[in-house]
Amino acid sequence: MHLQWKYALIVNLAVLIVLVAFYILDDFRAQRELNSLYNTGLENGADFKAITEKTIRPIVVNEIVRWQSFKGDEIASALRGKKEAHDDLSGVLDINVTHGETTAIQAALVPGKGKEALHINLTEEDDFDLERLGAKLYPIEGKYQTAVIVPYQADLIAHTSDRLIFSAELAHHDELNHGKMSEGLRQMFVDRGALRSSVHEIEVVTKERGRRWLVTDTSNGQRYLIWRNEDLLDVHVDNPVGIEKESLIEGYIQVVFEIPEIPRMIHNSRLMHIALLFVMSSLLFIIVNITTTHLVMRPLEQMTQIIRGAESGDTDSLQQSYSSGEIGRVTYSLARMLRQLKGAHSKRIAALEQFAGGVAHEIRNPLNSIGMTAQYLKSIFSQPEVKDEDIEEAKELLEIVDDEIRQLKQISEQFLTLNRPKHLNLEPTQLGELIDRVLAEFALSMKEPKVQVVKNYDAKLPAVALDPVLIRQAVFNLVQNSIQAMSKGGSIYITTRMDENDASPCVVVEIRDTGIGIPEEIQERIFDAYFTTKENEGGIGLGLALAHQIITAHDGEVTMKSKEGMGTAFTIAFPVH
Questions:
Q1: Average pLDDT value for the chain
Q2: Pairing mode, if any, of strands 490-501 and 451-456?
């Protein structure tokens, strides 16, 4: 896989994984916060309703009963005093009270509202909720506030001082609170010519617990009003003729509460979002940094160390393992070339070292370009947020790295083909005749190890435009290699034939022996210059390398197949023009 695609794949996968992880974590966090907010809303709703019904509504009703009429200023004053005196009402922002069927605000916690003709907005749905649930709880749009609306009723009982029958002790009010009348209190009624019914026939209705009660004599329907006056109970007669009847004042109370949890939760949510984004960005930076270091920077540093070692003459830097990938293969090729230079003949060492310095100089420029590109890639992916255009720019930069790597490979290949002939003296050549002349040169050297040659030539093989001198040298080196691989005797099979290579006709020569074969681990190096397994026998490792270079110079191709202990086969293909 090209470095560009490998790098892009890893980076894109890393971005995708980090984004998916960010989405999952952020979604989990949002769900927890919404659940918490929902539970808080339920708790707050119950608390707000309880405060409205148990604290604020009694204040309004008591003030109406106290003044026996709706007095907005007095109600507003009582509400303000209650808010200042009780911490439970610290979250109350406003209280609006209506009077009668109209929804106009007649009393409010905030001064001046009663004169501005403001209203409480009630829909049919709100009326239905109030009738069914006794209260309406709803959020105020655009604000972190919640309003509660409850109805109220103030039962007024009119009485006059001249209708006072008698006053009784306060101790009787306990039974009145339970809807009963004590026998002693009934007797006081009887002594004044009232209440002809028994205790069980008297109906007692508590109008306000501990303060006022309505007593009805079921025998004649006469009603009596009992009021608490400090430490006494005042008993009045409710005469249906000429006396004001019981009246009812009703309306709605709207209480606006602040919800501090919402802005606090939004603030905490933003902080958590920023922290999560920072963690994900850091993770992405680490992944990209590790990827860049592993795929680009470390192999480049290894290559740079090899080049520096070559320049300084430190051959120890060549003995190390190499990373996988294109840069690793280029590094290996470079190290292999440097090892070949190290083992070359003393007469060529100076020239080769001089050339190696030039090669190192040529390689340094692409390496510098690759290094600067990699550094810039690091800066791109170290940003807190990687955008799509950044990824596209990274792909373009990787194309540059890929081009520089191809240039490095081209330079290394040029180095390997240093001795390739530049000029060929081409002439029509019969390969069969040329091979026979080469075999004649080995007639004596093949007798002692008892090497026999088996030839299978194609009689219709056409002449090929070749440089016979150079081709003779190439065939000579291949045959010599086969003879040296059969020190105990064997056979060499030489075949010529017509074939097609990429749909083009070509002449093929196959030289196969039954020798010891070539170990698999060194097969890819047999055509390398100065690589030899016969150093003790005086070999310098140029025979197969020169054969390869000569065949390549003729636009030909040479391949090798070998198995240790079973022999080796070289196949040469020349195009027919």
A1: 78
A2: parallel
* Nearest alpha carbon to residue 154 among 207, 77, 103: 207
Whether the pLDDT of residue 495 is over 60: the answer is yes
325: Cβ contacts below 8 Å, ≥ 6 apart:
3, 6, 295, 299
pLDDT digits (tens, 9 = 90+) for 114-131: 566 688 877 777 777 777
Q: How far is Cα 386 from Cα 243, in angstroms, rounded to an integer?
A: 86
User: Rounded to 5 degrees, what are φ and ψ at 167?
Assistant: -120, 135
Give the whole-angstrom CA distance, residue 381 versus residue 285: 6
| N-terminal to C-terminal alpha carbon distance within the chain | 36
Under 8 Å between Cβ of 140 and 57 = no
Is-contact 202 188, C-beta < 8 A?
no
In this structure, of 175-179, 195-199, 325-329, 485-489, the range with the lowest mean pLDDT score is 325-329
Strands 490-501 and 504-513: antiparallel
Percent of residues in the chain assigned helix, strand, coil, to nearest 5: 55, 20, 25
Q: Which of 475, 471, 496, 472 is nearest to 553 (CA)?
A: 471
* DSSP secondary structure, 91-158, as one string: TEEEEEEE-TTS-BEEEESSTTGGGTT-B----HHHHHHHHHHS-EEEEETTTTEEEEEEEEEEEE--
Question: How many other C-beta atoms can be found within 10 angstroms of the C-beta atom of residue 239?
Answer: 12
pLDDT value at 245 more than 70: no
Q: Could you report the per-residue pLDDT of 83-100, keeping only the tens digit for each?
A: 888 777 878 888 999 888
pLDDT of 569 over the 80 cut: yes
Sign of the Cα torsion 10, 15, 17, 18 reads positive
- 78's enclosing H/E stretch is helix 72-85
At 49, list the tokens. 């309703």
Is 201 or 474 the better-scoring residue by pLDDT? 474
Residue 456 confidence (pLDDT): 93
Residue length of the chain: 577
Residue 577 burial (10 A CB sphere; 0-12, 13-18, 19+) = exposed
User: pLDDT tens digit string along 27-84?
Assistant: 777 777 666 665 666 667 788 888 888 888 888 888 887 777 788 888 888 888 888 8
Q: Name the residue among 574, 572, 573, 570 with its Cα closest to residue 492.
A: 570
Element spanning 511, H or E: strand 504-513
- pLDDT digit string (tens) for 136-170? 877 777 677 888 899 988 877 654 444 678 888 88
Which residue type is seen at 366? P
Beta strands in 239-355 (DSSP E): 247-258
Rounded CA separation 292/286 (Å): 10
pLDDT of amino acid 388: 77
* Nearest CA-CA partner of 466 in 511, 512, 503, 433: 433
